[in-house]
Amino acid sequence: MLTEELMQDARKYLMDTYARYPLALVRGHGTKVYDVEGREYLDFLAGIAVNVLGHCHPKVTLALQQQAQQLIHTSNLFYTEPQVRLARVLVEHSFADKVFFCNSGAEANEAAIKLARRWAHAKDGAGRYEIVSMVNSFHGRTLATLTATGQEKVQKGFEPLPEGFRHVPFNDAAALSTAVTSRTAAILVEVVQGEGGVQVATPAFLKACRDISRERGALLMLDEVQTGIGRTGKLFAYEHFGITPDVMTLAKGLGGGVPIGACLATDDAAKAFTPGSHASTFGGNPFVCAAALAVLEVILEDKDILGQCARSGEYFLKGLQELRGRCPAVTAVRGLGLLIGVEVALDARELVHDLRKRGILANATSEHVLRFAPPLVVTTAEIDRVVATLGDVIEARR
User: Fold this and answer.
1) Which of these is catalytic: 223, 234, 241, 354?
2) Is pLDDT at 303 greater than 80 in this prediction?
3) Choosing from 165, 205, 241, 252, which is the catalytic residue?
4) What pTM was estimated for this model as a whole?
């Protein structure tokens, strides 16, 4: 089926919830994907920070094939080896003591919000239930997580929103200190605001989040849905900042392309969940856990992947900063590891389309910010191509 036919059927049969690009992809390998007409694209979005090892990594593909032939789903009424093994790996390589598995980042954040409320209720009673999150944050599309999200555009039309959520400016410790009260159950913060324009938290702000939460008797919950699993050059982004949270959420890169989310917590926080208090039918089934185990095994056994990500991110940022120096339309460059934002004095969405026409995939998080999140295995030659092409398309728009 050609792209135009596919688009017509999509408009006829699918709900109109996405502003899709006029592109139908049929296969991928490494950092490349191919459309139905056979055209090749360099994928610098990676499924929105999902395909951390690239497309169809052989170890992940083999794990899926083998698990599909053995056992795909049982529900969480039973123990399964892949789920327990995955939980052990995550605990042994993080601050956490316990893990809850689900299907997405939104579900992981929903679990974290419920966990915080139940934990605070058990500790201090029903009056402690508020979640303090950040302006321009993004935590998901469920009713609770879009309310936690600090962007009015995702909340519009879904009112009345659930009560118990407050927002403060990102990287503003004074505002945070004022907002956290005896009603606060938890502070919820992204280490890097991906959807909010790739804004990186300052070390001082994250330290303030940790200190204030401890002083006021609240939980610190880090949303690492986009930054976790090597994206920033470390397995988890909090490792850059010398702090540890009480709760952390993961998804995206965890499964390398299959839908899985996780809510990790210390023993003290995790004990608030008891049998029947929270659940997920598909969460952590053998199929997705086998994929996640393969992703983690590749990253943890090949220590240079994280180092390569860090080096590639520095190289990419340097190239973009040099582009900024000779191209006034580039007004800012920021990021951590291979999660990078480029702010432009042009319509970023038009630049995304221009890049696609030249065989490069990226996206715009707002009218003026481009986001790049390539696989961790991207090469310097591929980075050079993107920087050069971005310069060309910006120049053509001037």
Assistant:
1) 223
2) no
3) 252
4) 0.96
